[in-house]
Specification:
- Chain A: Its main location: membrane.
- Chain A: This is Heme exporter protein D.
- The complex is a heterotrimer of chains A (47), B (241) and C (218).
- Chain A is mostly helical.
- Chain A is built from one helix and no strands.
- Chain A has one domain.
- Chain B is mostly helical and 241 residues long.
- Chain B has one domain.
- Helix content of chain B is 79%, strand content 0%.
- In chain B, helix 3 packs antiparallel against helix 4, helix 3 packs antiparallel against helix 6 and helix 4 packs antiparallel against helix 5.
- Chain B starts with 8 loop residues before the first helix and ends with a helix.
- Chain C is mostly helical and 218 residues long.
- Chain C has one domain.
- In chain C, helix 3 packs parallel to helix 7 and helix 8 packs antiparallel against helix 9.
- The radius of gyration of chain C is 18 Å and the shape is elongated.
- Classes of the chains: A mainly alpha (47), B mainly alpha (241), C mainly alpha (218).
- Chains in contact: A-B, B-C.
Chain lengths: 47, 241, 218
């Protein structure tokens, strides 16, 4: 583990918040897309 | 062969579907690589390890502005040429832009705490980003409030146009306002020239990563919107039959 | 066009038109602030210009949704859209009517409320001047927001969310005029900026508002 010195909390908090937000938007986009595709396929199959 | 052919939803779906896997790989490599490389850079003699935040802060801030510009262009294309994909792309981009603005603000606040001794300062740059966030929120709220899809696209397009003018206007007004309050207190950190190569290359990689990540997200979200639109159209057709 | 303006003014001043509500709200707001920050002159004086401007802004918001809502509901907006007057002119007129019924009373009341907040005497003139120059832009931008949200069932809150960010430049330059005036400085620069914003808004926003109205009337 690399040494972050006295600002460890600051740096880790910044990375934590950013990654959380990025993962959040990626996950939300992916889930919404998967759901839209599932629903469309189901609808097209049943006619 | 013109670029407008991609305005056809079917063609858009086919091409974007083929491109996406490669784009995902590239975005993942560049974003993760850029952030990880940035995390492993040596400490700055003045700012200590907090300099590592720049690899999140600057790319997010850059994308926050560029995404709004992209939304403006997409809105204009919709208003002038009425390509549905364009309007949906603008809709798809807005939440991504809002998240980027949030990241820029959050990392800025976390960074500002030890460096300037305060979480928040009404510095022109910070204030402008806060205003930009307000515009993103208003734009997203308007999209979700209108039921008719074409009206929503039209109205948000007009709002984006007017909002762009006022976002720019606010930027200069804020500059004026702050100078009126406290003279010459320039807190902004200008990246670029003063940066040594140790930091510059991971920053470039991180910027590229954020750009690719945005492209992936916009394509995925636009595909989602197209599918939803198609489903709604199919259901409406069945209701009539 | 004069007829339309007269009609709007009559509708607004009639009982139930909400005339005067904005001023009452403005008064309440200005009365609440000292309870929040304390009655000391030293605390009130520096924030008085800002409070007065923010108060005017919020009071202005209150009556915005009425600009088009009633005409939209009873269908007269459809008639106006097919009338020989261009819709751009209609929106500008509606904004003018809103300014006369809301903006002007606010401007008239502002000096009195300035006394409540210990606004320095020499700043009163600048307060009136800045409001006179700035509030027409508020009404016009408000008409734009009202045009966008007119078809929505619960547009009121959204309207505030959309319109308030557009008010930021006006607010900044408006308070700056008073602040400089109160300190005995030269407020020419913010006055020119504010007048520029108002002129630009009056010239261009009617087109955006009319475009939004046409979408909503489709």
């Amino acid at each position: 583990m690399i040494d972050l010195g006295k600002y460890a909390g600051t740096v880790l908090a910044a990375y934590g918040v950013s990654l959380l937000l990025l993962v959040g938007i990626v996950w939300q986009s992916w889930a919404a897309n998967a759901r839209a595709r599932r629903e469309l396929e189901k609808y097209e199959k049943n006619g | 062969m013109s670029i407008w052919e991609y305005a056809n939803p079917v063609k858009f779906m086919r091409v974007s579907g083929a491109v996406l896997p490669w784009l995902v790989i590239a975005a993942a490599v560049c974003t993760i690589g850029g952030i990880a490389w940035g995390f492993l850079t040596p400490e700055d003699y003045k700012q200590g390890s907090t300099v590592k935040i720049v690899f999140l802060h600057v790319p997010a801030a850059m994308m926050a502005i560029n995404i709004w510009v992209m939304m403006l262009i997409a809105s204009l294309i919709w208003l002038i040429r009425r390509h549905h994909v364009s309007a949906l792309a603008a809709k798809a981009a807005a939440p991504v832009g809002a998240v980027m603005t949030l990241i820029a603000l959050a990392t800025g606040a976390i960074w500002g705490q030890p460096m300037w001794g305060t979480w928040w300062e009404w510095d022109p740059r910070l204030t402008s980003f806060l205003i930009l966030l307000l515009f993103y929120i208003g734009y997203i709220a308007l999209w979700s409030a209108i039921e008719d899809a074409d009206s929503a696209a039209d109205l948000t397009g007009v709002l984006c146009l007017v909002g762009s003018v006022f976002a720019l206007l606010s930027r200069y007004a804020v500059l004026f306002w702050n100078q009126g309050l406290h003279q010459g207190a320039s807190l902004s950190v200008a990246p670029g020239e003063r940066m040594s190569e140790v930091y510059r290359y991971p920053l470039y990689l991180s910027m590229l990563g954020f750009l690719l990540l945005f492209l992936v997200l916009v394509l995925v979200r636009t595909r989602t919107e197209i599918r939803r639109r198609r489903l709604a159209a199919l259901q409406a057709r069945e209701m009539r039959a | 066009m004069i007829v339309l303006l007269k009609r709007d003014l009559a509708l607004a001043t009639r009982a139930g038109g909400g005339f005067g509500l904005a001023v009452a709200f403005f008064l309440i707001l200005c009365a609440m602030v000292p309870f929040g920050v304390g009655p000391e002159t030293s605390a009130l004086r520096p924030i008085a210009p800002g409070i007065l401007w923010v108060g005017a802004l919020l009071s202005c918001l209150l009556s915005l949704d009425r600009i088009f809502a009633l005409d939209y509901e009873d269908g007269s907006l459809d008639l106006l859209a097919t009338a020989p007057i261009p819709l751009e002119g209609v929106t500008a007129l509606k904004a003018l009517a809103h300014w006369i019924t809301t903006g002007l009373p606010l401007i008239a009341a502002a000096p009195v409320f300035g006394i409540l907040l210990h606004l320095p005497g020499q700043a009163t003139g600048w307060l009136i001047a800045s409001l006179l120059i700035g509030t027409p832009a508020l009404s016009m931008l408000g008409a734009f927001g009202a045009a966008i949200t007119v078809g929505l069932r619960r547009g009121g809150l959204l309207l505030s969310l959309l319109v308030l960010p557009l008010y930021i430049p006006t607010l900044i330059f408006g308070t700056e005029i008073i602040r400089r005036g109160a300190e005995g400085g030269d407020p020419t620069t913010p006055i020119l900026f504010l007048a520029g914003i108002t002129a630009g808004v009056m010239a261009l926003v009617p087109f955006a508002a009319a475009a939004a109205l046409r979408v909503n009337l489709r």
